Structure prediction request, 155 residues.
Amino acid sequence: NEGIRIAIALFGLIRHNATAINFENMLLKPLLKYQDHAYSADVLLHTNVVDRINNPRGKEVNVELPGPDAWEAFRPCRYSVEDQGVIDYKLSPLIRSFRKTQLAGIHRTRTNIQQGREENSASLMNLLRALYSLRASGGLIRGHEVATGRTYDVV
Prediction:
């Protein structure tokens, strides 16, 4: 009897090498110490891969990210690694639609309207990337449940 089945779903960019260390120290080690109930836990991961990011809101310009193999530190049982440029291409019709309706430039109170539009457009794109990755991690969970014939109790 495996007890409670737990899916730990990770998604999005791996922005720093310390992410895996923090994941282990703040989540896995305390979970492994817990002995009150029988359980099993699987890590499932979807990540976007890009060499550098530019984030106007965070004032990050050309910030280097960990390499494309950084996800291996999480030791997932299922994973999907996608090039962020490909994800951007997949999302481009949606972002164009938002831009056409001016939703990407809603902060008109700024002194520099064009800068506000660019920052909002970048933030919107980051949100869409995160939602895409979250959805993909959900697909990994469902796929693993189907493949194993067992559903998770906690995600």
